[in-house]
């Protein structure tokens, strides 16, 4: 039995990158499942109106289902909205429906507009070891809410030519939130995704990212693997869809690293 040490205090991780298609949702879903399968209590908050994390975890999120919008705008308690993920004990998901598309605008005029999500998570009576927030591909108020709710940011970076473009904008926003709204925020984790060993470019991007971010970059790298992209159409993570695939084993290793780092740096100590 493999061990994934549980953190001594809740770790809220915001999975962010304003670029679409870099692996935010895939990373959220698979890390969450990996950690939950190894004894952690995990909550996924789907903060993207597209609802891909909800789909990936097979959690109903059609129009009319109570969702994260209700928590943000109408301050409905999160426990009334969260759903247990079928087949994975200890894993829960706060889904996103199409309603959430309106939240970006509606949040502008509400009280405490940046801290609604953080308050909702903190008021959740159930205890979780990990809360993963799957951000939309933008830097608007939804992402700001996620950054205010988290202590850690996990940035997935796709190993391609334009990978680092736009990253400064994300880092600037993170620094602004840290300076004005959430001093305990930290970019703790960078994960290289969709790595294609056959290209020299992927290797160059990896070196760039490692030089720039040092120890924040996980040793584990997620390869491009067709099983990863197939899994959501079966309402599964790759961890359960094909546990022996390279996609699953690499996400498993990444989850283990995150758990061990958390224990080592005394997150929660
Ligand atoms: P984001 O949430 O950043 O928009 P996604 O996680 O939805 O990105 O990933 C974008 C697309 O790439 C999806 O179709 C997903 O299935 C696919 N994908 C993600 N990671 C991998 C991978 N390691 N190998 C193959 N396909 C992947
Ligand atoms: Mg996504």
UniProtKB/TrEMBL annotation:
Domain (AAA) ranges: 11-186
Organism superkingdom: Bacteria
General function of this protein: May play a role in septum formation.
Family: Belongs to the ParA family.
Protein name: AAA domain-containing protein
Residues of the full protein shown: 316 to 584 of 584
